[in-house]
Amino acid sequence: MTKERLDDMLERYGEVCDQKTAGKMLNVVPRTVSRMMQEGRLRRVGHRVDVRSICEYIENQADIDFRARVRNAHPKGEITRGEFLAAAKVGKWASRATSGKTRGN
Fold it and tell me: What's the per-residue H, E or C state across the chain?
């Protein structure tokens, strides 16, 4: 993190700011800031946004976005209900009647 940028942002906005101000800093709408906090891209302090995390995000956007995508992807060992049902219809768990295969063909 560039110390000058961090010091300037802390001087202007303080340690925390509201979502509307954070949205203006990042050039996004406040709802996007809320989503970014839910995904872990920005740190939350109550209902407000940590200015240090905004500064870190500005400087390392690609890395933080990548880590958030990996962290929020399907956890290992879990599949969605839709994935399970799709696999059950065509996979090794499908019964012979539903798989379309019959003996003798």
Answer: CCHHHHHHHHHHHCCEECHHHHHHHHCCCHHHHHHHHHHCCCCEECCEEEHHHHHHHHHCHHHHHHHHHHHHCCCCCCCCHHHHHHHHHHCCCCCHHHHCCCCCC
Gap between the Cα atoms of 27 and 68, Å rounded: 19
Identify whether 33 is part of a domain: yes
Mean of all residue pLDDT scores within the chain: 82
Can you tell me which residue has the tokens 């993190």? 1
50: in domain: yes
- Which structural domain range is residue 85 located in? 3-96
For residue range 30-78, what is the model confidence (pLDDT) as tens digits? 999 999 999 899 999 988 999 999 999 999 999 998 888 888 775 666 7
- Rounded CA gap, 53 and 15, in Å? 10
**Residue pLDDT, tens place only, 57-66:** 999 999 998 8
